Amino acid sequence: MSFNILVVDDSNSMRAVIKKVIFLSGFKVDRCFEAGNGREALAVLANDWVDVIISDINMPEVNGLELLNKLRQDILYKEIPVVIVTTEGSNERMEEVFNLGAKGFIKKPFFPEELRRVLCQVIGVGDDGGYEDRRNADRGDF
After folding, report:
1. In this structure, are residues 8 and 67 in contact, taking their beta carbons and an 8 Å threshold?
2. Where are the alpha helices (DSSP H) in the chain?
3. What is the pLDDT along the chain (142 residues), one digit of tens a residue?
4. pLDDT at 1
5. What is the SS3 assignment for 114?
6. Count of CA atoms in the C-beta half-sphere (13 A) of 26
7. Nearest by Cα to 36 from 8, 4, 64
8. pLDDT at 129
9. Can you give the residue ranges of every domain in the chain?
10. Rounded to whole angstroms, how far apart are CA atoms 134 and 41?
11. Model pLDDT, residue 87
12. CA 109 – CA 97 distance, rounded (Å)
């Protein structure tokens, strides 16, 4: 199974780096959308479904925190997992983004393995990109 990802960052070069890292990590991607800020991200979501959003915090117009707030207020978007990727790594900032509903936090710079691990974790897939079978074999099929 492959996934649709939305990368939100005001830096073209950082979006390119994140996309390249995702592909190099072996994470299975169907489509990878891009947005330069939260406003553009919401426009992408109006036309295309994504399985996970990777967003920076500091961006013009609608920043990453404002984007988290807007997503959590919309019934269609509130369950999309958001991973924050930022240079801001203080405990206070991490607590703030998790309180706003982020499912993952990665501090820049990062390694491809770290991004893959967090993506698999927030989407709920195993290392091979497939959904893990969490049934108890002793209890039957249900």
Report:
1. yes
2. 12-25, 38-47, 64-72, 91-99, 112-123
3. 678 999 999 999 999 999 998 888 878 888 999 999 999 999 999 999 999 999 999 999 999 999 999 999 999 898 999 999 988 777 888 888 899 889 989 888 887 888 888 988 888 876 554 544 433 434 444 4
4. 66
5. helix
6. 8
7. 8
8. 47
9. 3-139
10. 33
11. 85
12. 18
Tokens of 36: 């330069």
Residue 3's closest CA among 73, 80, 72? 80
Tokens of 2: 């492959």
Tokens of 142: 């249900």
Question: 3-139 has which CATH code?
Answer: 3.40.50.2300
Residue appearing with tokens 């295309």: 48
Structure tokens at 116: 């893959």
Amino acid identity for residue 73 in this structure: Q
